[in-house]
Amino acid sequence: MRLSISFFTVILFSFVLISSCSSKEDETTDTIGQTPQPDPVEFTLTVSAGEGGTVSTSGGTFEQGSEISITATPNQGFIFNGWEGINLSGSSITVTLNSNLNIVANFSQINTTDINNDPSIFNYDINYDYAEQIVDFYPNAFYASDLSENVINGINLALKTAADAFGKYGPVEYWVFGVDKQAALDLISDFCERREALSQWNLDDCLERETDETIDHSMIAYQKIGENVLSSNQPQMGAGHNGGFHWGIHKLSSSYPFTFDSLFEGIPPQDDFKTVFHEYFHVFQLASVFNLDDEERDNRTKPNEAIWMMEGGAEYMANYTLFHLIDSGTLTFETSYGTLREKMRNKMEYGKFFIEENCPESILNQFSYQACSQAGYELGSWGVAYLIDKVNNPNILLETFYPNLKELGFESSFNLTFGYSTEEFYEDFDAFLELPIEEQLEIIPDI
Ligand SMILES: [Zn+2]
Question: What are the pLDDT digits (tens) for 153-162?
Answer without folding.
Answer: 999 999 999 9
